[in-house]
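This section describes the prediction task in plain terms. A model, or a person checking by hand, is given the sequence of a single protein chain and must write out its three-dimensional structure as a string of tokens. No templates, partner chains or ligands are provided. The sample shown here is typical of the held-out split.
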Amino acid sequence: NTRALALGAPIERRAGFETYTRRAFPRAVLLDPARGPKYGSRSSSARSSQHMTQREITETLRGLPPRGAPEWRLALDSRLVRSPRSGLLRYLLGCECFDQARPATAVRQMMIAHHAEPMLESAALLVFAGLNCVSRSGVLLLPALLEAWEEFRRPEFDRNRAERAVLDAFAEPLAGLQGSSSLARRLWRLPIRTLRTQIRTAVASHDVQQYPLLLSPA
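The expected answer:
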């Protein structure tokens, strides 16, 4: 089931993923859900000791317009010109690309984000989900995420202080998610507007057979 990815690199689901990352991103993070992240130029332990601080997160986000504002993307691009290696800005750009139905570009940004800031564990999950969206054109992000989670059950994002601070900055009320699972509430934390719309629609359907991971109380 090899398909051409919009980034110009071949992708084979699961078995070929590491080969794909090496070809598309020779110096980027190699994401392996079974063994954790590996890095081409330095160890993951060395990188993980360099988590962004709360102060760095605050400084990066300071002055940005509200998420979803017309000037949001322009401000984000402007910041990236000045700080192209910012993992947080790349993460936010990846989220914006998912909202704009550009999963291939989103995957690339998320891989760069996770390489720069391993504490952004949700970026790794979004890479796998994004690759599902790319390889099966037309698949929405929510079912792609649920499939990736059901298959790998990792990474367990939203668990370290730095990532929580980032997600807190873009949090929205859990209105309409009564009866949803803990996974649904965690996915809601991801700052992707279209994903939140899909989650709200799925929960409102009460279709446990179609969305067991979202509607199960576990």
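For orientation: The radius of gyration is 17 Å.
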